[in-house]
Amino acid sequence: MNLVIDKMVEIKETSRVELARITTLNKATISSIIKELIDKHIVVELDKKIKTSGRSANAIILNKNAGRILSMDLQTHRIHGVVTNLFGEVLFEIRKPISNPDFSPYLKVLLQTIDELKHNTYDSTYGIIGIGIGVYGILSETKKIVFAPFSSWKDIELKKIVEEYSGLPTYVENEANISALGENRIYSNQENLIALNIGLGVGMGIIIKDHLYTGQDGFAGEIGHTIIVPNGKKCVCGNHGCVERYISDVALEEQYFERSNEQITIDEFIVRLKAKDPIAEGIYDEFIKYMAITINNISQILNPETIIINSKVIENIPESISEIKNRLRSQIMTLHLLTTSTYKSKTNLLGLTYVLSKDFFRVKEED
What we know:
The chain has helices at residues 2-11, 16-23, 27-39, 103-118, 158-166, 175-186, 244-247, 249-260, 266-274, 278-302, 312-316, 320-326, 347-366; strands at residues 14-15, 43-52, 55-62, 68-74, 78-84, 90-97, 128-135, 138-139, 145-147, 154-156, 170-174, 193-198, 202-208, 211-213, 306-311, 337-340.
């Protein structure tokens, strides 16, 4: 059944005839599998016909209301939490401010957020099927938070803590990896993909042959802590000249302060850049230069089909992608697509939903 489930997660609305075609399973097998899934309320038959290979057939679709997912993005100064159905559609949403990023007070707010989300799930067949948590930090292969550069968190077994508190299966992952999973669902026809996330820091999610690659110890993708300027600015990781110190939102804010003695946010920086403020324009030009070097390095090392950039600056300055491309001059680069995320802040949500819903459907088919 795994093959059928995977295809239905990918294409959502389909028919028995189409499933037989794309899975190469015979029609009798497909009919038997779908009947079992309908009996378990995992698949529903729609009151409509769809054309397949010139023939009309009853439409079937995974039951998006079979369960609910609680997803949370753990940022330094706030927690963004949502309740979604199994297709990632948001049913309830909250944002909780964080006054103290140390783990104990942060955990208290996190558990309060979980309780509030649990009370706003609405009806579903199987109830809450899991919790997904996106973390800005380095995770081990067992998903222990080894190091969170913008807080004091070290060696935190967050998955275990949340599961013991909530009684629900919990998926904890680095936010860039989650973005990559979400983008992989959107660009389902591309097997090799990179999600480059630029915000407080710089992270990279890597999809190879449709699978998330996390490396020997789970640390793969820390592009922000590769050195781009020898003996450059000191980074929180201990090195000097890391990518993060030149293209992150925090780095741009710091550079503006260094040149103007004025403290502004990244949103204000974008406003001034659009107004052609010369200081902002100078910083932006350097930002594009370092972005091009970073994209070149990623492309030459991993040779992905696609690199998707999640960056406030690039999303708000439409010519940024063209500016970066103009500085990519390597004749051996074979990058097919360089773009920004279609869903922007929703990408992490899609990634969490994709992982948890896929796991849920597979478990239920085996019950």
